[in-house]
Amino acid sequence: METKNRVKTKQPKSPAKNGVASKNLKDNKVIEAKKAEQIKRNQAAITLLRSWRECSEEEAQEQRETGEYLMRVLDEDRLSNRKLFP
Question: What is the DSSP secondary-structure string of 1-35?
Fold first, then answer.
């Protein structure tokens, strides 16, 4: 019976064996938890910004009129002949 010479190569440790995979898994869980926490903290600001974006047409018209009025009044009260809002 003939035995073949087999070269034994050192097998690299799998990530699960040396703790790398478990560390990465823990890191991912921490990152996801931090993301969820940040979203929860930002929710009030997100809601406010969405409410501003979704104003009615009447509110939008009132805002345009107010802006035009402010520009006109500021231009009228300037000491200089140059308009602030040309």
Answer: -----PPP-PPPPPHHHHTHHHHHHHHHHHHHHHH
